Amino acid sequence: MLNKVKSEYVSWIVLLGIIVLLLEFFFFNRGLIFSLLVSIGMIYIGRKWMPKTSGKLLFWFGLIFLIINIFNMMTLKFFLLAILLHFFIQFVQSKRSPAHLKPIIKESSPSIEKETVIKKESLFSNQLFGQRKTPEHSYEWSDINIQAGIGDTIIDFSYTVLPKGETVIFIRNFVGNVHILVPYDVEVSVNHSVVAGATEIFEYQETKIFNQSVHIQTPGFSQAEQRIKIFTSLLVGDLEVKRV
């Protein structure tokens, strides 16, 4: 019951936060969307022009401009106030109704064997800045599920052996490009969502995409014993999937 109340409380906070964000965009600060897009555009173009000095300056000025815009948002102040209010309510409730701990004695029951699990190392870890790239030597494949901030991601299947069945890649990125190199004899399905960028998946090309989702699949994907399923979600950036 307590977990349900907390879940409903969080849902209401998120809903009110969305309403405050929309009010801020369309009534109180109409230039905010433009400012955010300009700063994101500066970061993206700066990444493209690196390592030139102009690219570095554009990137860092865009990043600073973005952070300033976020901290000036009324929505951020609302969420901070909601968090402080939540902790205050929790503190008051703990004082009014302190928890009483009582020992619970249970009769012994037949022991149940614990299920054995294996923890596998991930190829990538979540990171806010920097490039992510698979090793340029033989490595053991592991499905990828990452969230990133700013930077490119390069996945090359040339140095690994794919397992039988379905290989899955999930990449969610804020600003940056994704390059995926797949073998010729493997079937591929790509689900790509982007706010602004370009897409090249084998023979399919879109030089300018704005707020679209793309689903491309090779003809034999559904019947293939060995296949790769790719899910990518980018705010700003390009996706390239090609054969090697």
Mean pLDDT, to the nearest integer, reads 79
Percent helix: 25-40%
Question: Separation of termini?
Answer: 54 Å
Based on CA atoms alone, the radius of gyration comes out at 24 Å
Low-confidence stretches: 1-5
- Secondary-structure content class: alpha/beta
Shape: globular
Domain module count:
2
The biggest sheet, with number of strands, parallel, antiparallel or mixed sense and barrel status, is: 10 strands, mixed
The SSE string, one letter per element, is: HHHHEEEEEEEEEE
Helix tally equals: 4
Q: Got a strand count? A: 10
The proportion of residues in beta strands is 25-35%
Transmembrane segments: 12-45, 57-89
Protein name: Cell wall-active antibiotics response protein
Pfam families: LiaF-like_C (PF09922)
Keywords: Membrane, Transmembrane, Transmembrane helix
Model description:
- The protein is of the alpha/beta class and 244 residues long.
- Helix 1 packs antiparallel against helix 4 (74-96) and helix 2 packs antiparallel against helix 3 (53-71).
- It has helices at 2-28, 32-49, 53-71, 74-96, and strands at 127-129, 132-133, 144-150, 153-156, 165-175, 178-182, 187-201, 204-217, 226-236, 239-243.
- It has two domains: 1-95, no CATH class; 127-243, no CATH class.
- The longest helix is centred in the N-terminal third of the chain and has 27 residues, at 2-28.
- 36% of the residues lie in helices and 32% in strands.
- It has four helices and ten strands; from the N terminus they run ααααββββββββββ.
- Strands 1, 2, 3, 4, 5, 6, 7, 8, 9 and 10 form a ten-stranded mixed β-sheet that branches.
